[in-house]
Amino acid sequence: MDCFDPGWSFEPAAADGRGAMWAGRVLAHGRLVATVTEGVIDLTRTPDASASELEQLTCEGWIARSWRNANGVGGSGVARELAAIRGPICEVAAGPGGGFMPAVRRLNSGARILVNDLSPGVLRPWTRFLAGCGLDPGLGFAAFDATAPVLRPGCMAAVCSLDGFSNVAPAAIGPALDAIRRGETTYAEAAPAGPRPQDQAVESMAAALRRGGVLFAEEGTLDPAGRDDVAPARREEWQRRWSPFLGFAPARAATAAGLRVVRHETTPGRTLDPGEGEVPRDAARFGITLRTQRELVVAVKP
Ligand SMILES: C[S@@+](CC[C@H](N)C(=O)[O-])C[C@H]1O[C@@H](n2cnc3c(N)ncnc32)[C@H](O)[C@@H]1O
To answer: How far is the CA of 12 from the centre of ligand 1 (A)?
Structure first.
């Protein structure tokens, strides 16, 4: 798949690095995106899966299970629509579940899918597992920040996300994550100012679509009506802490990115358990209970 933006380059640290391990900087349109030391590209650590969490998922056989269960085959029918697409598909923030990819590959063994995640540590077990099954032709794996315009404009027939867009975090947050966990800073303080990363990811992926290309997003979003009635000042304080994560609306993001929404379905979700992640855990400390809803958005590039 020839879909990487030619604006990416590698700048070696020494003028003559021949015979040595790579060292230097990876640039995207002049912006530093990663450093390379001793031949190893140091992409910022994945924001939501530490090395030990990943090890645990691998030990628990998550990848094999996601493949066996063919994530997304039931439900909304999105996998069937994706399986009928002719041309390359990008699976955004695939995670250990792989998003729609396992189901689409099951329905169409010829599907060409570029599987994306910020973390190479998430993608590596997928490549190993699928190669072990003799199943990787047609699949590409690419660790990059979905909020950045990495893909060549117009190269994709479809992009899809199963809880991918809603979980996208700015790569810059990675190093701050431990400090957030220790309560030394907040997500809002550590996140770079500017547009919500989820919106940016939708915009970047919309740019990668060709005319007539389709974006499929099935996302859990926070139900704005579902927060407990805590004192307004306290609720505002909490909202400030997590503002970059709140208020993501996939249909609005798709429209803002120049796509035409052709399907938008919302179904009530459930109450989030504080153990399910940083956001509900911190909400619980403020006496706030969060409810989710499921949103399906199908949008076409005019
Ligand atoms: C909860 S998972 C998403 C669910 C996944 N699609 C599945 O089916 O299991 C969140 C994933 O988003 C990835 N992620 C976070 N920020 C990202 C970014 N900026 N670009 C690409 N992937 C990102 C994380 O590394 C993680 O694997």
So the answer is: 29
163 lines ligand 1 (CB under 6 A): yes
Give the DSSP H/E element, type plus range, for residue 201: helix 197-208
Choosing among 1.20.1250.20, 3.40.630.30, 2.60.40.2550, 3.40.50.150, the CATH entry for 46-300 is 3.40.50.150
Report the atom number in ligand 1 closest to the C-alpha of 169. 16
For ligand 1, whether the C-beta of 72 sits within 6 Å is no
Contact between 162 and 97 under an 8 Å Cβ cutoff? The reply is yes
Q: Which amino acid is at 156?
A: M
Ligand 1 atom index nearest CA of 197 = 19
Residue written as tokens 């991918």? 164
Residue 104's pLDDT is 92
- Pocket mutation for ligand 1, best pick of 66, 76, 105, 119 (most atoms within 8 Å of C-beta): 119
More confident of the two residues 105 and 255 = 255
Instruction: Give 20 Cα–ligand 1 centroid separation in angstroms.
Output: 34
Span 42-78, pLDDT tens digits? 544 333 334 444 455 555 567 777 887 775 555 668 9
Q: Of 39-43, 246-250, 282-286, which gets the smallest average pLDDT?
A: 39-43
Verify whether ligand 1 is closer than 6 Å to residue 169 (CB atom). Answer: yes
Is 174 near ligand 1, meaning CB less than 6 Å away? no
Domain boundaries, the chain: 1-42, 46-300
> 47: which DSSP letter?
S
CA-based diameter of the chain, in Å?
64
* 292 CB near ligand 1 (under 6 Å): no
What is the token pair recorded at 243? 């503002």
Q: Whose CA is nearest to atom 19 of ligand 1?
A: 145
Dist CA 67 CA 54 (whole Å): 17
Tens-digit pLDDT profile for residues 182-241: 777 776 677 767 788 899 999 999 999 999 999 999 998 876 655 566 788 888 888 877
Residue 229, number of CB atoms within 10 A of its CB: 8
